[in-house]
């Protein structure tokens, strides 16, 4: 009986030891350089994480600040849970990427802090870095496919052919090559000196594009049924005008007889213009004549005799009264 009980105890102990050894995995081992214990958890969202292992390093500013604890697939994104060491502040607007120290090195999670002027508040425990602030690495298959397309499409051969053609057109004579380089230098110097003109041209193109953007509703109206009807009517009007214009053109081509008439009219208008200038020059004299001489005499029609001198020079104004009496003009 005692022997049977001992066998049962030994079997149970062996099963417990084997079970505990089976639960021991590589992820259960402490990570080299990690400072286990404490800290606070955060969640980082990625589109894909390739083969990011659990317990991968979390690096910020070149220093390990935590480790990845779990990776969960949630719909169209992957949530990476990480444990950050106590006393380490992770800005809420930090960017997260997956990087490698070497080509064959392990992938780790790198956090990039923004500048101090733009740095946001620190993440709280269970805080989250959203998908918009993370950069997922390209798929290895896509990289290999793009490289294969680049090599297999003949790009390398075309580059080699281009280099050969450049070498063929390059002058072998040093003097010619120096002259060619000098001309290129002069052209580049002129371009650099007139870069303001290029800037003005680009500003003009930008302004034109901006005007076109503001009138997009008008352009869109052109392709509506009403706009198409307007195009049709404009075409019909242009057809009528095209029929009328040749007859008008015949009148124009046969109107050479109008040239002498137009020349005479031009001479007449020149004479009228010269007459106008002459009248303007004489207007002041005529104004003086009428305002100082004619108009006062017309308003006060009288003659005042102030002096009468005889042939011998004697003043005869004193004898005027006697003369008037002799004529009967005065009593």
TrEMBL record:
Q: Which residues form the Mce/MlaD domain?
A: 39-112
Read off the InterPro entries from this record: Mce/MlaD, MlaD_Phospholipid_Transporter
> Which PANTHER family does the UniProt record give?
INTERMEMBRANE PHOSPHOLIPID TRANSPORT SYSTEM BINDING PROTEIN MLAD-RELATED, LIPOPROTEIN LPRN
PROSITE patterns under this entry? PROKAR_LIPOPROTEIN
Annotated signal peptide: 1-22
Q: Which UniProt keywords apply?
A: Signal
Q: Which domain of life is it from?
A: Bacteria
Q: What Pfam families does the entry give?
A: MlaD
Instruction: Specify the protein name.
Output: MlaD family protein
